[in-house]
Amino acid sequence: MRTRVGIVGAGPAGLVLAHLLHLEGIDTVVLERRSREYVRRRTRAGVLEQSTVDLLRAAGVGARLDREGMPHHGLSLRFDRADHRIPLTDLTGRSITVYGQQEVVKDLIDAREAAGAPILFEVDDVAVHDATTDRPRITFTDADGVARTLVCDFVAGCDGFHGVTRSAFAPARSETYQRGYPFAWLGILARTPPSHHELIYAYSPRGFALHSMRSPEITRLYLQVPSDERIEDWSDDRIWDELALRLAADGFDLRSGPVLEKSITSMRSVVVEPMRHGRVLLAGDAAHIVPPTGAKGMNLAVADALVLSRALARYLSTRSTDLLDSYSDTCLRRVWRSEHFSWWMTSALHRFPDDDPFQQRLQLSQLRYTVSSVAAATSLAENYVGLPLDL
Ligand code: APR
Ligand code: PHB
Fold this sequence. Notes:
391 residues; alpha+beta; FAD/NAD(P)-binding domain; 2 domains; binds P-hydroxybenzoic acid
């Protein structure tokens, strides 16, 4: 098999890249380890920056997003048993949209399949070779168990944090920066209308909690838990009780309902630099992950895909390497801003095991300052709605 750009991974990074290259008339093949059904159903985060929405719309995959996405113009920081609203749109002129990542993934798979462009699910043993030649290759086993080779001009590693593409990088020429956190998030999806029309980030003496949503009937909620927590130790009743305690505020009633899904996600910050080795380029979680507190993961993946699609399109039509050469630096500027913001939100809102009363008073003082100073609130809002993309 032969293609211009071999794309490993059918998450937001790989699918947006494949779609943007298709619009440029560039052939790609997408290789995905999981099944089509699994990828379309996998629950992930759900906040789209305005730039992400604008990009999906401009790329012709925004119709269902426009119908079903929920635009939000503010969010609440909840502490001291009260809501403190950050009016995102008043402060920045921009908004966010709540729309599940798997809905974005479904829309992109539908668009790819409608265009008749190749996407191979359930592939195994993916390995990338010859990164520094002008004919990098991907070897893999297809869904029928047949060993195959895909010869490419470029390989895009969009295979997430646990992907394999990064291992084609020469270790001596790349650096990994990371930070762990001594807690995880227990997330649930519940069949109950949201208890509030906006997101609530709650700081409480019992730890962090987040109220989010997926639709007028489905609520998404999270609890900070210790990193080694076992999901079996959390019955639905225990989850609802803990959410009610952490989200408690005067005049607020938490609506509970059947729990449709529950899982625990670990929290880390990781950045791999540079994001390119020869003709293999990383995008999205394959190159960097953020803790979910800033809601940046999917937006960074989409931003990388846009920058990469332009760099590849320029090279393939003009042989100019300028955008390929600047790809990593261009992306990393946005990545590090999001890394900082996600670390900051995480540090501001969670209880750390070694916190002392001094530290907790510092956190509360910072939260009170954030909601009472227009400058501080604007800084949070600007970061939350995200940097504009050059569309
Ligand atoms: N071979 C083929 N596909 C692979 C392999 C492999 N060896 N390893 C992983 N994959 C696939 C995964 O099954 C997944 O579908 O690569 C895809 C990577 O997608 P994501 O993990 O969604 O990563 P990305 O597209 O970068 O999007 C980042 O996803 O995890 C969230 O919080 C994160 O919102 C962010 C977004
Ligand atoms: C979600 O809705 O899943 C969500 C929202 C905000 C976050 C993280 C996740 O910061």
